[in-house]
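Final paragraph of the annual report: two paired records, presented back to back.
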Amino acid sequence: MQHQNLFVFDIETIPDTDTVANLTGFEEPGVVARREELERYHLDITGGKNPFPRQPFHKVVAISFLEAEIGRDSSGESYHLRELRSGGEAGFDEKQLLQGFFSYFERLKPRLVSYNGRGFDLPVLKYRAMVHGIQAPWLYDAGDKWNSYQSRYSADWHCDLLEVLSDFGASSRGKLNEICAVLGFPGKFGVDGSKVATMFDDGNVQEIRDYCETDVLNTYLVYLRLMQHKGTLSTDNYNHALADIIALIEAEGEARPHLAGFLEAWGEASNNSFML
């Protein structure tokens, strides 16, 4: 199948404290106490190594994505940016957020692009969809045994950059921020994932979505450079794709200051050398 669209995505989550009583029998109603109990449980089952909750124990509070149309000609592929946004609106709950995501995915039938999406984002989305009874048949039925969203090595269906860049674990798995530092992209600035729960508690959901969108942009930039390196994307088409990003930011940066901040940080990281 030749996909017609790229769908670069990222999610932000908070610990699912509603499950703690069922998991450990802990009855304290306070959110902070339940988060601590969830961390205690995960430290216990990992021998004190990792308090981070496993994928089922997350609630999704933001899903951000970038859509680009895939063009093809004798030089290879080209990508034409359509939109960058976050799902849902103020007041949307998790179920509505997930319904919107999977409805959009089922309609678009895209090539997925992520950073650790196969290991974290997509499993979380699957678990939470199951919690809410949301169907996603295309995710499972599309393609064949070797080429599908379920095939780990089928990067044309889901390019998880963490997996692809590390040769599926043959080399060390770098963090997105580390890859961005090497390539002259902004990476994380001002916010990181460890602050999301506090931001959510303070009612700063829009700030979480803004942060998530900058992660999507970083992921897209790394993907573009990988495709240029592979020869799938000519250098001219790579530069055109970057120009699309800059044009979007210049058009929307005033209304969306986090995008203007991203462009400024990109200039600093690259010494204002955006193109190849």
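The closing record of the year follows.
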Amino acid sequence: MGNKTTLLVVDDHQIIRDLLRRVLDKHGGIEIIGEADDGRDAIELSRRLKPDIVIMDIVMPGMNGIEATRQIHTHNKGIKIIALSMHVDEHYVAYMIDAGIDGYVFKDSSFDELVQAIQIVKSGRTYLSPRVAGVLVEDFRANMPAGRRRIASPLTPREREVLQLIAEGDTTKGIASILKVSIKTIETYRQQIIRKLQVRGVAELTKYAIREGLTTLDVRPSHSP
């Protein structure tokens, strides 16, 4: 398979799977190595085929994409998962982020955006469609009590600087280059940030960074060299 990014496509509609195969197979750097029409098949094929990325629908009969995402990550945390959904509802977005997705793209997005998401997620970063970021911000606003006093950040200025770069999609190597420190130092900062904020994964770090005003919604492209 060379250096191609291997995909498992999970959707209960055959026409969607056929369309994705027809379009993505034309991309030289991508290869679809399997298809599944429900969450249980997705889990089994993920174990057997070990794709780089799973393109995961959310609402499916038998087992939905949320539970399938959780179980795939339980068995193999190295597999990246991109939610491909028609749902803009904040509950679906929140549940999929909690399950551990690495990207969220809408079905009415362009194929160019999906390819971009695949490339970004393969590189170890998180891709959230701009509309998803908007949903997250609106959710924060809706759940923030009026007149709540701002709580002092538990992070040091340097940690906040690292957090912003993480949220904007930079790699550990890229952040180390920007801040002129070692990769090990950045890894230490990352662990300290996760411990202090008690969050899991880049998506939750990004939500925190948006809420704290450390970054804007448009966190692509990366600063990394």
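The beta strands are 5-10, 30-36, 53-56, 80-85, 103-106, 127-128. This concludes the annual technical report; the extension proposal builds directly on these records.
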